[in-house]
């Protein structure tokens, strides 16, 4: 769902900037780090940087660059993620089995595609084409999504390593003396509009059409639930008491013996450590609890006598807040304690109580890009608000992220809501 | 969510009637049939008739009958379905492993509980108690749900048997010469109310509170999709083409090699047979397609250029239709071709495009009964409308049934909807 | 491998006797008990009594009875166990899913086949045929194997039931004051012959040909390892110490969280209960430990500083002992404490350290019966000596039983051996 | 089971030589290749080269080098393969998840250990110690085993890659015009000795003690079964006919849909390609069939009217043949067509019909090294003869290799045997 036409020259600038961010993000990696896939859902960094390149090659260069000749045989299969209409693709959970192409070859692939994209920009400057520009914009947002996935997947790979390596040792942090109190923002009942405002900038197809929803009076917490608050939940014995849990959630935590969020580990002295992109750190009680599943978020909210917001409730509130927060640009790459102004955008994707389903009148993009979002509208829950690994110019109030209820390797957190 | 107080004498009459239906339903079964569990999700009939009895014993007799003494040691565990707050329960997929108690013992259990319930009714007639009466009503609707499960599970057990036995050989059927054309019922946009109207009769807790929803203009088909129409979908090659399917659905049908609805089998002469409670029959092209998953319903609708209705859309339409149709009382125990008046209630539970989630302001029942519905509000989809195995006095427009997207052993069907 | 020709009249007598034993064994069962399959490897009793009948129908009546007409359609598939050359068969782990044919129909099947077998005996008395008689003898030994399986499988079904029912409440037992000391029988080195002595009576094909083996000096314990001795192994912490176990065994006991033999349960007062066909009983420290896997037997022997005998070593010793012991005829249906004379035949099948492989020059039976034993000669270990559920006239020193190293629902025990 | 004392200076020479071979073997690998684990049973090359180093560090330096200080924290867990008595170890199927230590760090580890080993050799030259020297010899043979595993695992990693890369493009090959006819070597019955001759050179503990076995007259083929011969088996429909297979084998090939040996692929023109360390090559009908499981070897032999040799039968023949053949030194790294002299040592490990069990009187090595071989003596089959990736000075007639019946990523082949 492209926004208003962007001048090709501006788009070229953004192309260069976004592509550069990806490479900066990978700069601290060793070749071995690029190659590793420690969990079925986490792809090797090498795969990510090839796949986002494949996206430009497949959706822009092949159809729209008059002279482009694909020069990397097999890549169309290896780096297709899940586009059935494009052709076959390598099984997701076996991406780490592919030693070749080498990291060097993948960077060569990037440079080749980048060069051809520059040529395409030349052409577009001579003969602008809103459709092509819209697709380039989609490709950039796609790459920004994969920048976030890179952060998640790098973390997953580093976390399983008994040597406890860190992705970066120089990540900054923000600390506070005490937890900022949580306050409620209340909203009156009424007919609201949610979804992407046509013509107002970029959005994915799943954010449209904008449509009316009725909301009863409700309230939403102005910051995320903290580690300290979540610890009280753990220490109350919640992970051993069925009463707090959805039936599927209870079955899941017992089958997998979950007793705390992902990436927590006891420090052997009564405290806890938490894996971050900066390595293992003592758990900060004032910072938001992170890497929880929907099951845990929902159980926590119930235990706390509250509930999770719906996606409509949250979008309405987020749309009223300035678009700023602890996003990728801040450089923390980890959620930070709320400041006096509360927490809205950034820090952590907030689980909502809404299933990921099509909006009324939803129509997927034409062609293969229609597989981008629509076919996943089942079995997943919506998350809102962006996180510390989301670029600010990739974020907006109508953004719908989605994961399975048991997923927790993303930067996910909890925001409480309630009726009033 | 009990309805308005029912006189104990009337409740006693209904108790006797509902309990008798269960036993009539089981009358054609051999002892071996009672004992069998051919699928993890289908319980042995013996278990069902004990469990519904356990429900009255646990929620009525133990707390409210002054002299009741439980005389069947171990049954509190064996026949507890999933109430964590009551205590332990036998694993669902191992219910068929329990040769004992015998069928005879289970009927003795039923008679013992029935006798004590008669005493409780005596007490209630002397000293009415709306709370207790409400729970009895819940118990009766619970038993009616299990009557429907009995039909489903008996069918599942008979279907796997290579000897092709029938539950009953004398089931009636209705045949037509041609498929009644499908017509659309159109509804204008507006703010609607859905959910149970407080005080209007029985409903489960998950149907409350009644609340407002905004609906855009939409239309709903006035009958279900037929076998003939679904065959065209199959014959178009749809089960081999990813484009029609949700991603999870495509993965599921490939993993399980699904090529047609459950209980269909080629007849060896180019046609199809369908398993029914009356045994294997030639597929009737004019009758509704049955035993499809959500994945198949959703894919069919997309293939047909339409979509599934949301639960709100469907409730609004159903509430406008007379409460009648091919329900349990008709005795077909199978969906029948639509008559001139179309098809609304009964025949088959219709998959909606809505996830099973709490209504705004939902509160589960107090105590253990709170586990009845609320804890299942994740990963499942809502179905509406009742089926040929649902008793009419158990049915209402606000009824929310729910199954996992891959489930198809229930009496499930497809109704198309669209925007207009 | 039939023995010397048996007169048809004698064979008829044995046929009647063996068939009667099967039915006597089933007499205490309820219809529900006949129907149940509580473990994938344990068949429902109904299936057993039909299958042994199918064996006579398939291998004797169909090929050799001139007028026999199969009157039970579908049974040729349902009750074929694993004979690929005969045709399709129902999956083993789904035998309990078949409510039909009813127990009554299966007994009708038995009576029909028995009547036809009587006619075949009439013919054989007129015109003896050693080949046919040999196959009948095979069918009788086959049925005796299934009598033992019935005991095992009935026990498995009863054992999972929380109501703790017993197959029979009137089973006798033998008790002693103290454990008889274990003594060693020593044998000198030399070239021995093992295997079935041609012409000496019935044996299965896998016991032939008789052949020479070289044995070094060795010794074998003259009784089985007791519960008391095995308890010392448990109490030493053996189930938590990798050092005692084969690698596959250690992986297996950890994956399945084994901490004691199958059918043991703590009694809540520091002692143990043991499931028997007579119900749950306090563990008798003087009786042989039962229902152990090869992994446990091997680990115990190593822990005790000994080893298991090879099958050749054990056959040589068994062949020197009188063919008597605690067999099916004794009526205990459970291993009993050794008497002053020690324990050789009966009580429990003894795990040997020998893999189940073909003897040098082994040739399976001709035709479908060749699938009886030969195709299982991989991944299993040999057991020797018969058990409390083996009929004496079905037992011999050369008998090779076999199970997977992790199996323990058979009547299996431990006999120590060593070098000297 | 060390051989006669080797002079420390000679041992130092061999140490340097064996260690150098490992590094030469890895020279063609990219960093990405070192890191990859494409199958649970195949370890990443990085892990192998660290593990063999860990072996020297753990069993030689830590106990016997007076000043050695372990400088690589965590390596004692990461690179312990399966020694429970040493301590914890990283799960085998997750070795590829460990991006760190880097390849460079692992080589640094190697150099550190090599330097300390040189110091240990200095000490040994001053004060020889047969026990320590024996352990060094064990470590060298251990490393040679891992050289063979490196060849197997590198092949497994390369084979799954759709880009079809080759480990080396310059591997030599030997071709012939026609298949050399197979001839039988016959041996008379008698009492033979097998196992390691004490004092005759190095052997693993599982090859002792040397002991007597009786063998009947038998014959063994003087070359391996070829691809062409195996193709006839395939083309006869053998993979679809149960009659040829062991029961477990038939279940396995159907579950995994095996239709040909591992690493075969149709070339799209009616022929076959075969993956080799030199890349994908057209299948050579005259070369030995490779990468077959025991199930396939056993089925082929039965189909061909023959059988597999027992390990005793094969050892007796191998011991009569000169110790030469297509081994690692030849540089083919693939089995080659038999020459006029037949094929005995090298080319492919030959499946025998013998289960991997302890020899009579077997005693594992003392201490942790006792876990080297003994605990795997269950569920596996013995293979004999070495292969094209086995160093000649690591090979001997008494060598017992072992794999599970379904394994086929090793260099395994088929040699026929029979009775006469």
TrEMBL record, chains A, B, C, D:
Listed InterPro entries: CTDL_fold, DinB-like, EgtB, Sulfatase_Mod_Factor_Kinase, SUMF_dom, SUMF_sf
Superkingdom per UniProt: Bacteria
Domain DinB-like residues, every copy: 15-147
Residue ranges constituting the Sulfatase-modifying factor enzyme-like domain according to the UniProt record: 185-317
Chain segments annotated as transmembrane: none
Gene Ontology biological process terms in this record: ergothioneine biosynthetic process
Claim: Hydrolase is one of the keywords in the record: no
Record-given protein name: Ergothioneine biosynthesis protein EgtB
Organism: Sphaerotilus montanus
């Amino acid at each position: 769902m492209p926004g208003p036409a962007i001048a090709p020259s501006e788009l070229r600038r953004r192309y260069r900037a976004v592509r550069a961010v990806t490479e900066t993000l990978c700069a601290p990696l060793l070749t071995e780090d690029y190659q590793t896939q420690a969990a079925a859902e986490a792809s090797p960094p090498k795969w990510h940087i090839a796949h986002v390149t494949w996206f430009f090659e497949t959706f822009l260069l092949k159809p729209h660059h008059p002279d482009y000749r694909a020069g990397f045989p097999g890549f169309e299969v290896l780096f297709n993620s899940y586009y059935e209409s494009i052709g076959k693709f390598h099984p997701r959970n076996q991406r780490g089995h592919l030693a070749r192409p080498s990291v060097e070859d993948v960077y060569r692939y990037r440079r080749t595609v980048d060069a051809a994209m520059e040529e395409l920009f030349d052409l577009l400057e001579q003969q602008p084409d809103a459709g092509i520009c819209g697709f380039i914009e989609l490709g950039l947002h796609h790459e920004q999504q994969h920048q976030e996935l890179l952060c998640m997947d790098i973390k997953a790979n580093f976390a399983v390593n008994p040597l406890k390596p860190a992705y970066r040792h120089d990540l900054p942090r923000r600390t506070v003396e005490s937890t900022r109190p949580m306050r409620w923002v209340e909203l009156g009942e009424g007919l609201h509009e949610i979804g992407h405002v046509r013509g107002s900038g970029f959005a994915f197809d799943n954010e449209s059409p904008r449509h009316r929803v009725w909301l009863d009076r409700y309230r939403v917490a102005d910051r995320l639930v903290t580690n300290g608050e979540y610890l009280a939940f753990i220490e109350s014995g919640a992970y051993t008491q069925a009463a707090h849990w959805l039936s599927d959630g209870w079955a899941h935590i017992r089958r997998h013996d979950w007793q705390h969020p992902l990436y927590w580990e006891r420090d052997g002295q009564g405290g806890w450590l938490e894996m971050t992109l900066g390595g293992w750190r003592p758990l900060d009680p004032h910072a938001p609890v992170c890497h929880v599943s929907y099951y845990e978020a929902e159980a926590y909210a119930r235990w706390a006598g509250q509930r999770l917001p719906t996606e409509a409730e949250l979008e309405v509130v987020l749309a009223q807040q300035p678009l700023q927060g602890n996003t990728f640009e801040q450089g923390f790459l980890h959620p930070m304690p709320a400041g006096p102004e509360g927490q809205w955008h950034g820090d952590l994707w907030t689980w909502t109580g809404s299933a990921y389903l099509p909006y009324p009148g939803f129509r997927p993009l034409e062609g293969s890009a229609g597989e981008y979002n629509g076919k996943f509208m089942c079995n997943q829950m919506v998350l809102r608000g962006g996180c510390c690994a989301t670029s600010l110019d990739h974020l907006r109030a109508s953004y719908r992220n989605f994961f399975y209820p048991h997923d927790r390797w993303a930067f996910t957190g909890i925001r409480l809501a309630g009726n009033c």
